[in-house]
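RECORD TYPE: protein structure
NAME: PLP-dependent aminotransferase family protein
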Amino acid sequence: MNGESDLGWLSPLGEGPQPIYLRIVDALAAARSSGRLQPGDRLPPQRELARFLGVDLTTVTRAFTEARRRNLIDATAGRGTFVTPGEPEEPILDLSMNIPPAPLGLNLPVLIRSGIEGLLKRSSAEALLSYHPGPGSPAERAAGSSWLAATGDRLPVERVAVGSGAQALLAAVLLSQTREGDTILSDALTYPGLIALAGATGRKLAAVGRDDDGMRPDHLEEEVRRHGARVLYLNPTLHNPTALTMPEGRRRELARMAGKLGLTIVEDDPYSPLQTSSPPAFLSLAPERTFHVATLAKCVSPFLRTAFLAAPNAEAIERIAAAIRGTTMMAPPLMTGLACEWVRSGLAGEITAAVRAEAEARQKIAREILSAGFAPAESSLHLWYPLGERRRSSELADVARRRGLAISPAEEFSVAPGVADGLRLALGAASSRERLEEGLRGLRSILSGGPGSSRPQV
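PREDICTED:
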């Protein structure tokens, strides 16, 4: 269509839980996606739209503002408003990025600014401007030992390394403990960063069967025999994506099986600080074979980009240090220095407690809006919404994106085909509880096949 569009694209507006201005934007996005509206089509004046819909002019103005923010339309002075040629640049609300929510009562930007200023005053410029290759300075490793002590006994600094985030330390572990072509065992649904890391380094992943308590030890033994694997990756606390916390009994069974099979355990543990109590870590149950990675990004802030690693012994740390030098070189001194100072002062723990409280509040909102279909984890940053045979998560994610909502389908976490389908919903990226409610209500409408949901045929 050239020239000015008609108003037929507004016909599916209907009723729904969303504010009418958002339903206008959804209808516009759906019309552009279906081809009813083409790039370059001119929309009628806002007053005409308001009269057609029987709404206030401010409602249409708000809808146009949101549509411009999503890159659906553009306005040219003196010419009018036109449908843009590109894809929407930004979802209205992100339920895909798993980050801690802004904690109530604490102003993180102010804390970061004052923390950096204080660090610069107290630290020598030479220390902050120099390379720090290897596992970190003694002071940084001591702070790491203090943080890791929540999972068990305080470790000697010789068994601790500091890295620029969990991904950098996971890479160092895999590079130091495996060779190209080796198989790493994990859950069938696992952390996407591990999947990307295995692909980038030429390692293979194989899935181990599970039940309601997590990975099954008997299946682990079968997969070790089948693949000759020597490394097992586990995310036992608030598992990503299922939010399951593996009970102590199952952890002990897996630790015994890992010992029997001579496996190295890589324990990825970003979330346990969000729980007031957790079952014993594999670092405590099998310290002689466990590499334990704990990042501050999920419980304090990704801004710090700092993580700590505990290894079985000092010799393993030396191999980790060599891998760090060959990849990321070092953790950034300024961010690491600030993170370690927050750990020593107790501020990191205070922020974590506030993040935990906000996560609990957001889980409560999710339970109220998505009242059935998932098992909530009280202080998790995310939840897993299983779909069974009802829908395909990839199709639902496409529908949601067209409606301005980003969610994560099962395929992003899948190691093996045929895994139970579902959606991971991250609750922390929304700027407020109100925005989260808005996004979850929109998702509920999509899941129920309500007006404007563009329900896929399956």
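COMMENT: The CA atoms of residues 174 and 198 lie 8 Å apart.
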